Amino acid sequence: MRPTLTIAVGLAAALAVTLAVSGSVVAATAAHGLPLKTVARVPLSGPPIRFDYTNLDPTTNQLWISHMNASQLLAFDVRTRKIVKTISAPGVHGVIAVPTLGRVFASATNAQQVMTINAKTGAVLARAPAGAYPDGLAYDPVERHVFVSDESGGVETVLNASGRRIATIPLGGQAGNVQYDAGSGHVLADVQTRDDVAVIDPKTNRIIRRIAMPGCNNDHGLYVDSSRRLAFVACDQNATLLTLDLRTMTVTGHASVGDSPDVLAFDTSLRRLYVSAESGVVAVFAETAHGLRKLGQAFLATEAHTVAVDPRTHLVYFPLESGSTGGPQLLIMKPS
């Protein structure tokens, strides 16, 4: 073979390899289907078993992570990307940081309690009974009360700022997630077995209205955007996300999400909604004036069912049971 022909063939082969590689990269990107890219994978402590809710305290830069099946509540510093506190909490599910109180509240489900924790020191200040299966939590900054969903007990447990139980509100069905609506001053709670949302007046701790969720099977996840007067309801038995107009109290939109949607997180400055599912599928939406527009949906990782987002940096956090090294890890991503 002549030298010139050898060079030409070599260049052609190199070009073919380059095109094949670039094509596979494009295909992989398209298959990923999410407008996110990986920033870091940070190892977490404990065994590779189930995580649950997370909550960011912007005043301390600590992301509180429920390592549920390890019965550990982790405080992860988002600046140094290190765990700075580990608190024993039997079967911990829900967690919410309340910076104005300097407190963190966590549902220790196996102990059927809610724990009140000093956000600075990690000391447990109080424990209160919270029903058969305490799960998600919400904080009402006006009444300074914490609402705790007792999922199997079908009750909202109400605590005061010091962590003492002051009321219980029967929901008439299994309790899903709970959120405070600053626009109305009411508390909204999913009632899974009724497929409706209960509206609670926190001044009287009574249900004042029920909103039917047509097209929903087992409403579990919930996020309220008070500023736009919208709420988003995830139906975990038919992989559907509903948009609820809080002005008219009617469902105005339906969207498909991953099987068994669980936790919702919202970037309040970028106005992006993240819906993570038990199936490991994550869906990303852009919020519009009256609803949502899907930006992408794809399988992210096994058990990627819980998510948090920092609206200051737009970083998105997914605690995962098992990473590349076999142990648990925190997958940190950002919009691509």
What does this structure look like?
The chain is mainly β and 336 residues long. Helix content is 9%, strand content 52%. It has a four-stranded antiparallel beta sheet with strand order 1-28-27-26, with no helix packed on it. Strand 24 and strand 25 form a beta hairpin.
Tell me the domain tally: 1
Arithmetic mean pLDDT: 91
Structural class: mainly beta
Q: Please compute the radius of gyration using only Cα atoms.
A: 22 Å
- The sequence of SSEs as H and E is HEEEEEEEEEEEEEEEEEEEEEEEEEEEE
Shape designation? globular
CATH homolog superfamily = YVTN repeat-like/Quinoprotein amine dehydrogenase
Biggest beta sheet summary:
4 strands, antiparallel
CATH topology, anyone?
A: Methylamine Dehydrogenase, Chain H
Q: What is the subunit organization of this protein?
A: single chain
DSSP helical segment count: 1
Classify the helix fraction into a percent range: under 10%
The CATH class name reads Mainly Beta
CATH architecture: 7 Propeller
- Enumerate the spans where pLDDT stays under 50 for 5 or more consecutive residues: 1-31
Strand order, main sheet: write it out. Answer: 1-28-27-26
Tell me the fraction of residues in β-strands, as a range.
over 45%
Instruction: Give a count of the beta strands, DSSP E runs of length 2 or more.
Output: 28
Distance between the termini: 47 Å
Short description:
With 336 residues, the protein is mainly beta. It is built from 1 helix and 28 strands. 46% of the residues are buried.
